[in-house]
Amino acid sequence: MSETSSRLRGPAQAHPASGLAGSLAAPGDKSVSHRALILGALARGETRISGLLESEDVLNTAKAMAALGAGVKHNRPGEWVVQGTSGRLSTPPEPLDFGNSGTGVRLVMGAVAGSGAGADFVGDESLSSRPMRRVTDPLGLMGARFTTTDGRLPAHLEPGELAAIDYTPPIASAQVKSAILLAGLGAKGETCVRELQVTRDHTETMLKSFGAEIDVTREGGGTRIRLTGPQRLTGQVVDVPGDPSSSAFAIVAALIVPDSEVTLTGVMNNPARTGLIETLKEMGADLTIVPGPVMAGERTMTVTARTSPLRGIEVPAERAPAMIDEYPILAVAAAFATGTTFMPGLAELRAKESDRLAGTAALLTVNGARVEAGEDSLTVYGAGPKGLEGGGETVTHHDHRLAMSGLVLGLASRTGARVDDIAMIATSYPDFFDHMRSLGAALEAG
Fold it and tell me: Which residues of the chain are in CATH 3.65.10.10 domains?
């Protein structure tokens, strides 16, 4: 990661821009990076990873897997080697600190429970406010014994054996599904997860590539995933594809900043992650998509985005799981569109790093946009060709996606915009400032 980007702290200012141009290799996908480290630690033999996203969230997962007994070695930027434990994780003497990473802590809870080990799980103030029962409850049904603080971190897991369950998550969550499947690797019997709505399927894809016997069947609008434990994984070579969620910031910036054309290469092209691309096309975005190579079992694409006159639309609620992390930057695009954009089905945004639904509405409002936030919806009344005045300061609430969205808005506004803190951007996209500046963005830290 860029030393400069990773050390940035405090507020930042985005100045009005024009003519963003250039090409970027999409940063490594955070979801695949977490899973590569976790599966490599559970597998027997060696897993070699290239293109790993070296963000704070992912590095905390790497530290956790090392503390649990895996050999974790960093060779050079993006290249890591994991010596697996053959499913025999060990109980660490110190708590596992996941910082701000909900994905890391929830997936590792499942992996540790399934291995028979125990652990203490902690995180920062933001992560400690987020709900963990969505994972600890189903793991408890399998026999895991968790003690939490009112369903939140810190959490303690006692070592013990698990039995398989047949479970239908009450919310659409890839984290919940993944935690159960990782636990199921070490549980006795057939573990079955029934999704009512399809969520990102990286865990299923990567489990197959690591040699797991797993059955994935579509059921109506959802999916049934089954695996029988205990079973062991085998170390693999993993080339991490580019992250669609991080790529979204440069793509939207190119669409709303005048006279811009930006290309991103190696972006993952998974239907469970491309909801934003589909939505932007419906809004009239000028996007060119060229197929790329397969990486870690995932198709990739090269995306070229050009300044476009966008129009407001109604985004289908069922699309939310395929773009749940992209709603803040989609809302920014909608603020520069002509007409109204209605986004329903967003209740899950209230349980992210912050109340991301309220935070998104606030960042738009303070910069002159007209919005209405419901319990699980957001309506944005686009400013059209006149654009936004800007000039406001986004309160980020320690949320990296609010920070990056606020800065992109500033690039396209008439007077720029500020955000109150950028430190947390390193949790998911440590090279954000370097990448955006290379395209011509005027971003000033401090």
Answer: 3-28+243-445, 30-239
168-221, pLDDT tens digit by residue? 999 889 999 999 999 999 999 999 999 998 899 999 999 999 999 999 999 888
Q: Residue with structure tokens 């580019």? A: 242
Does residue 325 carry a catalytic annotation? yes
Residues 138 and 165 sit within 8 Å (Cβ to Cβ):
yes
DSSP code at position 240: P
In 252-394 the beta strands, taken as DSSP E runs, fall at 261-268, 286-295, 298-306, 338-344, 370-373, 377-383, 393-394
Catalytic residue among 29, 57, 325, 399: 325
- Residue 225 pLDDT > 50, yes or no? yes
For residue 353, name the pLDDT band (cuts at 50, 70, 90): low
Q: Is pLDDT at 446 greater than 90 in this prediction?
A: no
Tell me which CATH code domain 3-28+243-445 carries.
3.65.10.10
Cβ-contact 245, 259 below 8 angstroms: no
DSSP state of 74: E
CATH superfamily of 30-239: Enolpyruvate transferase domain (3.65.10.10)
What residue type is assigned to position 110 of the chain? G
Task: Find out whether 332 and 359 touch, Cβ atoms under 8 Å.
Answer: no
DSSP strands (E only) in 296-442 = 298-306, 338-344, 370-373, 377-383, 393-394, 417-419
| All residues at 6 or more sequence positions from 197 whose CB lies less than 8 Å from its CB, including other chains | 172, 221, 222, 318, 321
Strands 119-122 and 152-158: antiparallel
Give the tens place of pLDDT for each residue, 252-293. Answer: 999 999 999 999 999 999 998 999 999 999 999 999 999 999
Omega of the bond prior to 230 within 30 degrees of 0, cis? yes
